[in-house]
Design brief:
The structure holds two protein chains of two kinds. Chain A has nine helices and nine strands. By secondary structure, chain A is an alpha/beta fold. Chain A has a single domain, classed as P-loop containing nucleotide triphosphate hydrolases (Rossmann fold, 3-Layer(aba) Sandwich). In chain A, the strands form two sheets. A six-stranded mixed beta sheet of chain A has the order 5-6-7-3-8-9, sandwiched between helices. A three-stranded antiparallel beta sheet of chain A has the order 2-1-4, with helices on one face. By secondary structure, chain B is mainly alpha-helical. Chain B folds into two domains: 49 residues; 203 residues, MetI-like fold. Helix content of chain B is 83%, strand content 0%. In chain B, helix 4 packs across helix 10 and helix 11 runs antiparallel to helix 12. The radius of gyration of chain B is 24 Å and the shape is flat. Chain B starts with 9 loop residues before the first helix and ends with a helix. The chains are: A alpha/beta, B mainly alpha. At the A-B interface, helix 3 of A face helix 8 and helix 9 of B. Bound molecules: adenosine-5'-diphosphate and magnesium ion (MG). The site of adenosine-5'-diphosphate has 13 residues of chain A, from strand 1, strand 2 and helix 1.
Chain lengths: 257, 267
């Protein structure tokens, strides 16, 4: 399997007037092409920091980041959709193409096709505020995919949605990413979401984040996220990941005392 | 509004009718109040309850107006003031906007200049009057400079604050799309600050009038400010009142122009 990304001994510290924060400590990680890779960890552990480093927006304090693709081939979907209200849905989706000055007819068509394909075709001329939260999140994903990235980074993309929408949008996103054949890295603090979507799941420790363990998802590929949630192996895997995370929390508590 | 008229229910129709009735009532009362004001003023003057030499009267103001209008004198004064105000308003807004953009783009410059801007803002600009007259000369130039000075600093402060309060995550989004600083400015910061810039326009319309009239008090030989000062000196209160009313109407008209611009751009 071809590696898309490899982190070796990556550490990162934030510096501010009030002091320094060690966010990531000596992390090793590799992600393969075509894989849906999950990262779960307690909040504030350094997950967003990790994604920023992977994307190339942030240079780590130390360690090496190797990529087989260029940073411009990485799409980054932030926690909130950040659609611009003064632009129509169509223009929001084309924002990246405009910025990179690659707004060719063919690329525009691809983006608009994605909107149509994922049932947003009737909304291209609408404003973001006229769409539901789930629809907005899909638009944000398509804005990312319009640049035809080889790798997409998803930072807790569903956390702003209510439970029902969350399940549906998660499945939509899984489908879109599978069909468009891109590699994906999903950050979440929701274990069941990670199991429902990801092929491998890395569990991070509390801050400073290190990789505690990487789980292979033993549930067969090709199932929908709903089917995976109902799979007999789901519960046992959930328990294992949860134990790993819980252990993190306990260590955190005892560390505080 | 989205529904077509045939889809409107009986109840909604009654609701709309009631709302329209309410709006009409408010407008009628507003006009009534104005008419009443002038009417009472006129009657008080007519029956000599107030001294019309000091308080003037609507009818006297009207004859004052007609006298001014007859030989084109009025137009000369109105146009002088209008030009000064419009030039002052437009320049102050543009200069303020450009300075805000420069300060946003070059962070060290902003940090260095911040205290100076705050102090300049606190300074009462009228105190600079004599200096302006000496530097620019006692003419239209000085009046326009006054109109600009009075609003440019606060424009910079307000617009820059708007620029700086753009959601950090939206800036990050632009970064993830590998936008340059200029692209972030034109595609995110400026559009998201449209209402903020319009608000600055609204403030500046008022400020430009203050600056212009203040400037005319100091130096001019024409303009509405000049008419007001002159009328006061020769104790022609009708001229003073008449000029003040014209000023009020012009200021209101200019404010409405800004409202129209606001409507046009915020669609
Ligand atoms: N720009 C920053 N400056 C200083 N500290 C930061 C910055 N960004 C994040 N941190 C700190 O780094 C830690 C990890 O943050 P983050 O990566 O956002 O965690 P997560 O995404 O897992 O919630 C937190 O303690 C946070 O306060
Ligand atoms: Mg985060």
């Amino acid at each position: 399997m071809k590696e898309v990304l490899r982190l070796e001994k990556v550490s990162h510290r934030y510096h501010s007037k009030s002091g320094e924060t060690e966010a990531i400590r000596s992390m090793d990680l590799s992600v393969n092409e075509g894989e849906f890779f999950g990262i779960v960890g307690p909040s504030g552990s350094g997950k967003t920091t990790l994604l920023s480093i992977l994307s190339g927006i942030l240079t780590p304090s130390s360690g090496s980041v190797k990529r087989s693709i260029s940073p411009s081939e990485i799409g980054y979907m932030l926690q909130r959709d950040h659609l611009f209200e003064w632009r129509t849905i169509e223009d929001n989706v084309l924002l990246g193409l405009e910025i990179r000055k690659i707004k060719t007819k063919e690329r525009v068509e691809y983006a608009l096709d994605l909107l149509k394909k994922y049932s947003l075709g009737d909304f291209v001329k609408k404003r973001p505020s006229e769409l539901s939260g789930g629809m907005r999140q899909r638009v944000a994903l398509i804005r990312t995919l319009a640049l035809r990235p080889k790798l997409v980074l998803l930072d807790e993309p569903f956390s702003a949605l209510d439970f029902q929408t969350r399940l549906n949008v998660a499945e939509d996103v899984r489908k879109i990413i599978a069909e468009e054949g891109v590699t994906a890295i999903l950050v979440t603090h929701d274990i069941s979401e990670a199991i429902a979507l990801c092929d491998r799941i890395a569990v991070l420790s509390a801050r400073p984040a290190t990789v505690k363990r990487i789980f292979d998802n033993t549930i067969e590929k090709g199932l929908s996220s709903i089917e995976r949630r109902e799979h007999p192996l789901f519960a046992s895997l959930f328990k294992e990941v949860w134990k790993e995370l819980e252990f993190t929390d306990e260590k955190e508590k005892s560390g505080d005392q | 509004m989205k529904k077509k008229s045939q889809e409107i229910s009986e109840e909604h129709f009654r609701y709309l009718k009631k709302q329209r009735g309410k709006t009409a009532f408010v407008v009628v009362m507003q006009v009534f109040l104005l008419v009443q004001f002038f009417l009472v003023w006129e009657l008080l003057a007519k029956y000599e309850i107030i001294d019309s030499f000091i308080f003037s009267a609507p009818s006297k103001m009207w004859s004052s107006f007609l006298a001014l209008a007859k030989d084109g004198v009025l137009w000369r004064h109105v146009s002088a003031t209008l030009i000064e105000t419009v030039v002052g308003f437009v320049s102050a807004t543009l200069i303020g906007l450009v300075v805000a953009v420069v300060l946003w783009s070059i962070e060290p410059l902003r940090l260095i200049l911040e205290p100076y801007i705050v102090v300049l803002n606190a300074l009462p600009k009228i105190a600079l009057g004599p200096i302006i007259i000496i530097w620019v000369g006692a003419g239209k130039g000085a009046i326009i400079v006054m109109a600009i000075l009075i609003s440019v600093i606060i424009t910079v402060i307000n617009i820059l604050n708007g620029f700086l309060s753009v959601d950090k995550d939206k800036i990050l989004l632009m970064k993830t799309l590998s936008a340059t600083r200029a692209q972030t400015l034109f595609k995110l910061v400026l559009p998201s600050n449209l209402s903020n810039i319009i608000a600055a326009l609204k403030v500046n319309v008022g400020m430009a009038w203050v600056g212009t009239i203040m400037g005319e008090y100091l130096v001019s030989r024409e303009g509405l400010g000049y008419l007001i000062v002159y009328g006061g000196q020769v104790f022609n209160l009708s001229l003073v009142m008449c000029s003040t009313v014209i000023l009020t109407v012009l200021a209101a008209l200019m404010y409405f122009c800004v409202l129209i611009v606001e409507k046009a751009v915020s669609r």
